[in-house]
Each structure stands twice: as C-alpha cells, then as structure tokens.
Amino acid sequence: MKRIHSLLSIILSAAITAGCAAPLTAHAENDGLTKKELTAYLFSMDDTTKLNCIFSDKLPDVPYITAGDYLGCVTSLGFPEAKNPDGTFTVTGATGKMIVDTEKDTIFFGADNDFFAGLRPRSKGAILNTVNYVRTLEATDNEGAKDLTIDLGAYGIDLIESDGKAYFPLTTISDLFLAVSNSGEYCDGCIYFVHTDDDMLTNSSYYDRSSVYAKNERSPETADYTYRELCFVMDKLYGRPATAKLAASVAEKGFDKTLDEYSDESRRAKELLLSDKMSDFIVGMYYLTYLFYDGGHTNFFLGSSELLAYYNDSPVGTILSEKVKDETDKDVSVIKQAEQYSQWNKESIDMLKEQRAKDYSRYETVKTWEGMSEASFIRSGDTGVFIFNNFLSDAVPAFKWALDYSVENGIKNFIVDVSCNTGGLVPVAAYMLAAMTSKDNHTNYISMSSLNTLTERVTEQGYSVDLNLDGKFGEAD
Predict the structure, then answer these.
(1) 445: helix, coil or strand?
(2) I want to staple 382 with a disulfide (CB 3.0 to 4.6 A). Which of 11, 77, 177, 412 is the partner?
(3) Backbone angles phi and psi of 228, in degrees to 5
(4) CA nearest 385: which of 393, 374, 396, 377?
(5) How far apart, in whole angstroms, are the C-alpha atoms of residue 445 and residue 460?
(6) How remote is the C-alpha of 450 from its chain's centroid?
C-alpha cells in the first residue's frame, strides 16, 4: 500500500460529501452569518464533542471551522488563536505559527519556524497509525526553508472572520493538514473525523455515507467550489515525485490551464468535474486517474471504489452501473482503462509473488504470520529471508522474532525482501532501520530526512525506538 500524500483521496471524499450539502463557493464578506453548534464524532460513533461552526446565508449547510478547533480534533495538541493589531490572526502551535488574513484570504508560514513539525496526529482507534514502539522526538531543520503564503482567494476560497476568530471551510483545512492522516467530513448535519489511511485501506468508514450517493444532482456552486478546491490541491499539494505525463505541465501552468490545453481527454475531464451531476463528477475522477497515471502511486477514484463496494444500489451507483454498460458512451473506454491501470498494479504484484515463491521453493519455511503485512521467515542453511508485503505495524513483532531466531539458530546472512512491498508507515521503517544500525551506533536513536513540498523545508526527524518491544525506551534497547 502506498500512502497518497498528494491528498487526492481526501479531496474526492470531501467533494462528494459536500455534494449532500449546500453550495460551497466564494461569497462576499457581508453575507449574513449564522453560528451553529454541531455534533462532531471523533473517529468513532462513541466519542463526540460539540463544535461551534459558522454558516453563511448563501451556504446554510456548509460548516466553517476555526483552525484551533479543527487541529484540536485531528491532533493531540492545543492551538490558541489571537487577533493581531493589523486584523490578521495568529494560530500558535508547538513548533511554529500560522498567520491567517481573512481580508486577503491568505495563510502565511514563516521560514523561521515550522508549524507543520508540531502536528502530532490523534491515532486512537487507528488501524494503521497506532504504534507504541517508536517515539517521535523533536525535529531539526536542515536547509531550504522559505516564507510561504498560500493564496486561497486565488481559487475563490474564502476565509471568514467572526467573533474575533478566523474560520476555514472544513474541506479546505482538511486538505491543508492532511499530513496528520486524519480529516473532517460533513454529512447529514454532523462532522465526522476519520483516519484517512484506514478509510483508504478498507474503502469504508465507521459512519454511514449512504446519503452522499442518494441524490445525483448538485448545485452549480457546489460543482464550482469542488473544482476550485481540486485545483488548489493539485497546484499546491500534489507532491513529489510527480511522475505522471501531465505533472510538468501542472507545475508550469497550473492544473486548470493544463486541463484546458493538454488533450481532448483533459478537456472532457474538466467538463465532467464541473457538472451538476454527481455521477459525472465521479467519471471525471476516473479521467484524472487515466490522465495522471504514475505507475500506481496516485489514485483519484477511491470514493468510487467505496461506492461500488457498499452503495452500488444507490441512485448514483445505479446511474454509473448503467453507464458502463453502454459501449457507445465515449467515457466508458476511459473508465475501463483507469480501472485496468489499478488491475495492472495488482496483477504485476501477484505475478512477482508467484515468481518469488518459485525462487524460494528450496528454502525452509520457518514461520508465517497472519495479518496485513503478510510476513514470513524462511531459511536455507545459514541464510534467512524475512519477507513482508506492507510496512504496517504487525510487521514489527514479526521482524523482531525473525532477528531473535536468527541469532539463536546460526543465521549469518539476514535478508529483508521488499520486492512485493507496496509501502506503508514511516515508524515501521524507523524501527527496522534502528534494528539494523543499533549495534554499530550503540543507540536506539534513528533519524530520517523529509521534504515539505509546500515550504521546501528539509527536516531531520528523530525517533527513539523500543527495540526489544518491552514497552520502555532506554538502555535495554
């Protein structure tokens, strides 16, 4: 599983969720505003809180939320907000500040601090991101940081001031801070906070999204906002390395102009994305999967996978099912090609697994583990091979067992086979790297460098690792 840091799975989820609400589009600052207290579900139906949100008269069903409230729900920290003498707002995090200007609809991050580094995701109940064997330490800047101003107004996205606070559209702030692997979705008058990686893995959610697909029509304003938000995501958050054929054009000209100029298929994609029909929007996302194919890392139709898996009999699902039966429909070939790309990835991995099994047939299978990582350990003489297909948490105890077994049973050559591994969690890689280097370094500390593609800041992130998995971090590791 490759994590989609380009945020594309989330903009799809946010966009189709907005389809069951009112239009979300730019509006004048003198619109009438209404404050509502909403019930928010914190990653399960059993944990709730109340949030004060703002609604515009033109957008009566679309919540605007403060950064402090939003970040307080998706992370485990507090984010106090204060209004400045010049009318802007400062949101303070553990490692930096964010300046919000509701007049200009801009967000500013200074090069002298790293607001993003202090975001610690709330992981209670998460399938993928719950780890207790790696402790994240303070990050250290290396190089490249620059001042960053994000101009949401350029995309027709408004920020609202009310009662001395700055409010963001829920969709926009979810996209902006998706790095915490959590997000907020608005449906049926409530906000649901979800673990996005879990939803991506399972194509499902803990709450009922059926109303999202109950109505095919959406307002022109909703379609317009959804498209503008997608343009913002693609222009600013698409990520690196961007290897699709259209990526260079997006970097140079922007997403919107690229769709206008690239091909008949890209122009058709824009037409569908701006349609007032939900089914057309989903087909438009299939077009993006076709146009931006990069070998399997980025996927635009995860929401459609959920639709087909769980809500195929819904009004929107029925329309799409009938559409793909029509071989004369000009969109069907693109839909099938996009689905084929996904199937190719699966088939190529399956073929590689089959070949690997043949190559390892002379090895003795020592142990296999059930779980998402599909881990196993095999040996031939004094050579052992640890095989796992995902960097997920259940790979860690299996990896430690294989190391311990190797020490106790004369294994001199220890091989880690990632030939069929589709990716996963950074803490799993941190644990394994620490285990490989701890003997030489005499420490349970490991660090990794990462690039924030928004700020171009290179950060060295340190981790303390519980190598012996005794629940303690110290000399025994």
Answers:
(1) strand
(2) 412
(3) -65, -40
(4) 377
(5) 12
(6) 16
Contacts of 327 (CB under 8 A, 6+ apart): none
pTM (predicted TM-score): 0.84
HSE-CB for 425 with a 13 A CA cutoff: 26
Distance of alpha carbon 276 from alpha carbon 459, whole angstroms: 43
Residue percentage of the chain with pLDDT more than 90: 49
| φ and ψ at residue 289, rounded to 5 degrees | -60, -40
From 409, 45, 389, select the one nearest 399 (Cα to Cα): 389
- Examine residue 241 and say whether the peptide bond preceding it is cis (omega within 30 degrees of 0): yes
Dump pLDDT digits (tens) for 438-454: 766 667 888 888 777 77
In the prediction, which pLDDT does 353 show?
Answer: 92
Instruction: Report pLDDT digits (tens) over 71-130.
Output: 999 998 899 999 999 999 999 998 889 999 999 999 999 887 788 877 888 877 776 666
Residue type, 437: T
Token pair recorded at residue 439: 């003997």
Mean pLDDT of 152-163: 94
pLDDT at residue 13 is higher than 60: no
Residue 218: closest CA among 17, 31, 28, 12: 17
Residues in the chain: 477
Bigger pLDDT: 239 vs 385: 385
